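Section 5: illustrative case.
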């Protein structure tokens, strides 16, 4: 049975346009748009009408970097695919791309199958996967080709975490060469993990055990050095490169230089680097542990370079790196030794609102908000125009957004399965009101109406900036 919905009277904002238009949805997809009040719009008939007068009508957010149920440091990220995707929906994000993990000594396929098993039937919104490659060998390289063919088109490597995910320059080069041939995109955690481990050992030996030292040992120069090295390895391999969670001014400078040289190099940052700083890491009574993530939070003066990078398009995407650990019982594993604090922060529910606040504050424009949070991640990871825009034929992943509502971010009211908020007490202007995923209402006027199992696995094409 065919179902039709009309979203009437809102300001439709995409990465390219702003227009007062009515949106006709049929069988889970956008069927048509027409300027509000015109005969064409009046002719839209539907079973259900959503009044968006005075509101924005925006594409559902695409979060290209999440870690649901991720094992780390003897524990697991606190959000399951069920709780994490429900929280994403509450925050106006309708697609996540999570990271399946290859364990050393195992195949990519085993890792991917394990993540499919975690997610299938549990998600409130649609999802795809990247593949973390932690063991580069001849079999792994062949598997990369097969994964690209079935819609897992990006592969993450780590210059950090020796003994866990770390790849040396030779392994990175081999994977990049393979990606150059099969159309895959290499995503890089760019920090010099070998050098950082020396600094960690020295800090602990001096009795510097508090959370703030996590930021001090993971130096900006070691992020910049690794970013530079990753860029040059990608250049040698003739491969594109996507650098994840860029936090430091010096790393942005490396990306800017590479892009000015015409290289296919892309950069992502995250809300925590735009809104938080080492001041949070230094909070007393071990509270700073809440803000331990890698790359780490930086001194406030780095924020200006990140905002500038987003305005100049030297940074293209804002993802969350959502990887929540509860303060009680999980972050506390690192009391007396900052190196044992599980690395990661919650954020999948807050990204769209925080970036709207950036519009209010004058850092970015409305269309740039949609570009960095919806359209560019969809293009980067081969999901556009199915995801990331509102256009005929696109999935009806649509958010009715109230740009005037005020809210205070708090663990008391969020839906992520974690016992604190990284933005506790922060006042923001703008709030998600109604969320459609493939035409189905998952949030209806601030009430959750979704269900686990609605979200489906979404295979991806290759990076659409390389065609």
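Designed sequence:
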């Amino acid at each position: 049975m065919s179902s039709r919905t009309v979203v009437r009277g809102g300001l439709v904002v995409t990465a390219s346009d702003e227009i007062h238009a009515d949106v006709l949805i049929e069988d889970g997809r956008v069927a048509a748009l027409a300027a509000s009040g015109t005969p064409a719009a009046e002719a839209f008939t539907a079973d259900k009408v959503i009044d968006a007068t005075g509101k924005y009508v925006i594409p559902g957010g695409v979060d290209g970097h999440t870690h649901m149920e991720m094992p780390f440091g003897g524990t697991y990220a606190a959000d399951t695919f069920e709780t994490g995707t429900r929280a994403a929906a509450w925050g106006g994000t309708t697609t996540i791309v999570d990271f399946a993990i290859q364990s050393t000594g195992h195949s990519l396929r085993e890792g991917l199958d394990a993540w499919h098993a975690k997610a299938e039937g549990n998600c409130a919104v649609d999802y795809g996967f990247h593949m973390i490659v932690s063991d580069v060998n001849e079999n792994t390289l062949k598997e990369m080709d097969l994964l690209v063919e079935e819609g897992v088109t990006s592969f993450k490597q780590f210059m950090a975490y020796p003994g866990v995910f770390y790849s040396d320059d030779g392994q990175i080069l081999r994977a990049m060469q393979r990606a150059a041939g099969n159309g895959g995109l290499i995503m890089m955690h760019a920090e010099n993990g070998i050098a950082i481990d020396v600094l960690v050992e020295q800090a602990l030996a001096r009795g510097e055990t508090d959370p703030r030292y996590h930021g001090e040992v993971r130096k900006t120069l070691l992020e910049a050095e690794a970013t530079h090295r990753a860029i040059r390895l990608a250049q040698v391999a003739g491969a594109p490169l996507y650098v994840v969670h860029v936090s430091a001014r010096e790393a942005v400078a490396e990306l800017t230089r590479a892009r000015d040289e015409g290289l296919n190099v892309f950069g992502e940052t995250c809300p925590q680097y735009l809104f938080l700083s080492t001041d949070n890491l230094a909070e007393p009574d071990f509270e700073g542990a809440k803000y331990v993530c890698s790359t780490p939070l930086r001194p406030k003066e780095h924020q200006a370079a990140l905002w500038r990078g987003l305005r100049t398009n030297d940074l293209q995407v804002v993802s969350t790196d959502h990887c929540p650990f509860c303060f009680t019982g999980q972050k506390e594993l690192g009391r007396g030794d900052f190196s044992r604090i599980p690395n990661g922060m919650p954020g999948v529910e807050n990204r769209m609102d925080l970036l709207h606040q950036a519009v209010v504050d004058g850092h970015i424009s409305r269309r740039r908000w949609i570009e960095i949070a919806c359209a560019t991640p969809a293009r980067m990871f081969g999901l556009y125009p199915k995801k990331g825009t509102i256009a005929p034929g696109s999935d009806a992943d649509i958010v009715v957004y109230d740009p005037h509502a005020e809210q205070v971010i708090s663990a008391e009211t969020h839906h992520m399965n974690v016992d604190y908020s990284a933005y506790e007490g922060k006042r923001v202007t703008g709030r998600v009101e109604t969320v459609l995923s493939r035409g189905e209402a998952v949030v209806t006027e601030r009430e959750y109406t979704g269900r686990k199992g609605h979200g489906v696995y979404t295979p991806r094409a290759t990076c659409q900036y390389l065609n």
